Structure formats: structure tokens, C-alpha cells
Amino acid sequence: MALASSSITVSSHNSRMLVIAPNWIGDAIMAQPLLQLLKQNYPHRAIDVLAPSWVAPVMRAMSEVDHVIESSLKHGSFKFREYLSYAQILRHRSYSEVYVLPNTLKYALLPWLAGIKKRIGYRGETRYGLINVMHHDNRRAPLPMTKFYAALAAKPKTQFALVLPRPVLHVAPAQIETVYTSLGLSGSSKLIVFAPGAEFGTAKRWPASHFARLAQTIKQAHPQAQVVLLGSPKDVDVCEEILSLSPGLINLAGKTSLDQAIAVIAGAALMVSNDSGLLHVASGLNRPVIALYGPTDPEHAPPFSDVAKSVSLHLACGPCKQRECPLGHQDCMQKISSEHVWTLLQPMLDA
Length: 351
Known about the structure:
With 351 residues, the protein is an alpha/beta fold. It has two domains: 5-153, Rossmann fold, CATH 3.40.50; 173-350, Glycogen Phosphorylase B (Rossmann fold, 3-Layer(aba) Sandwich), CATH 3.40.50. Helices cover 34% and strands 15% of the residues. The chain has helices at 25-30, 32-41, 56-60, 80-92, 105-113, 145-150, 173-183, 208-221, 236-245, 258-266, 277-284, 331-334, 338-350, and strands at residues 16-20, 47-52, 67-71, 95-100, 118-122, 133-135, 191-195, 226-229, 250-251, 270-274, 289-292, 308-311. The strands form two sheets. The protein has a six-stranded parallel sheet with strand order 3-2-1-4-5-6, with helices on both faces. Helix 8 (208-221) links the parallel strand 7 (191-195) and strand 8 (226-229). Helix 7 crosses helix 10. The longest helix has 14 residues, at 208-221. The chain is globular. Residues 1-13 have low confidence and may be disordered. InterPro entries: Glyco_trans_9, LPS_LOS_Heptosyltrfase, RfaF.
């Protein structure tokens, strides 16, 4: 849902604003509607983004972003001198305001050290004083992620109107062609991407054997199709397991940069993915997706593609939101059959 425009004061000058990006790829993409709203309401103001190096490629794929400042600040660690160094960089760029998307104390400290006068964000870790335009989320009924971030574009406690823009990423066709050529992929054959990893934990992973059976079914129905396994270096083992069960797939796990992975997905006919950052990349690129949910809530962070299917068994034990299955059986993912996913995927490929 969109924010009521009457609640937003439009600035008439050309000062810069800063957005401090989330530390996770999926969250960063779901924050993109916030950037759309800021650009809509402040069309003459440049938007800079401070982002971790592993998130920066996603931010560069957002047309609203003027400049990305890559940071080496690590999630879970705090070195005051490092934060002071980045604060000095931000101070020199003279921002009029900052939107602090991570909810931690240290990220609210950064713009305060930089002397940015207007600091907008959620209460988070009791950040009174560091955040001086403070929003509050309802923990009993948390907003879906896109609304959670988009709400920062309006004054606190503003009611939502009807239509919220969905996340949008952009990749130039020439970049897709260049990446496909460099990776030995064909631009003339259908390409299906599997994203079998999940940074959050193994509970979110659809079994490797299920991915392998689905790949075999796809190859039988579409012999010329390219089935590509994508993921980070942490996903190499699970992708190798899938490849051992279903030879003939193209395993690019750990072999691409995030920029390259984004381009591969941009040219894909379809993606099958766990609830992961790459799922939300496909959603932002408006690629057809089948999203597999187990311990997480599909309503909290759904795909927004024109053609998208969210698969969840809605078991009584879920969504548990745990990294590992607390009951030891992982039925929420194990019992999603490859045959069921194929019935959803087949009409997408035929279309």
C-alpha cells in the first residue's frame, strides 16, 4: 500500500539525502519502494546509499540511486574508529537528512557522528536522540517488509493509502549479453535458475534431492533448456549435491559476482528459489518465480513479479522462523514435492 502523499512535505532545494541500506540482499530489495517514494516526492534531490560491499550491486541496479558508497562495516561487529572514518566521509557530502534502515544502535550512531541533522528510522535498539524522527513498528502485528521500509517516507503514524510501488531493479540488455557470453550461457535457449541456498539457515532449504528431481523433469520436457544453479560460495556443497543427482546442469555457485548473478537472473525464463536474497533479485527484475517457503511467512516477504507462485504447506508448527528445524523433521520443506512444483512451473515455461 502507498503512503498518503498529503503527509509528506516536498523540498524545493537540491540537497542530497542519504539512505543507509540493510545488511541483507533481500531486505535491500524490499526497501526499494522507499527510494521510489522519496524520488517521487523529492524529484530534484539526489539519493546516495551507504551499503555493505555485498549489497552494493543490488543498490546500483536501482535507478533512483545517484551514488553508492560501499562500506566494509561488518554485521555483528563494532569498531569505533571505523565508524568515525565513515562518518567523516558522510560529513563531507553534506546530507540534509538520512534514512537509517538497519535497526541497530551502531548504524544510528554513524549519521549522528556525521552531523546529519535529520535522522529518520525506527526505534530499534532504543535509539532515542540518535534517531530524531522516530517510527514505531507493532511487534504483535509487524508490517510486511516493503511497507515497513516505505513507511519511513512519511511522517510517523501516517496511515497508508492504496497502492505501494513494488521493488524494481534494472539491468541493461547489453550487460546481460556480456555476462552470458563470459559464462558460456546461451541467450537463445530457455534458462531456468535454481537458487537452492539460504543464508538464514538450513531450515529454509528445499532438499537437494527435490531440486534434482525437478531438474530431471524439466530436461525431459524441454531438452534444450539450460538449468543453472546459482549461489554464493556457501552454497557450493548443496549445488554439487544437486549436480551429482542430476548431471548436465550448469553449476555457477560460488563462480559469479553478485553483479553477474543479477544479470543471469535478468535474462532467465524462470527461477525456482528458497526464501533468499536471490529470490528477491528475481522479483525485483520481474522474472517469473516459484518461491518455496517453510519456516518463514510468505506474506511477510512475498515475490512481486507479475508471474509468481508462493508455495507453503502452512503446517501447524510453522512458520517457526528458526534457522534449524526445532522438531528435527523439516516437514515444511521436505513435504513440498517436486511433482507439485512442476505442476506450477510447467505452464510458466510453456507460456
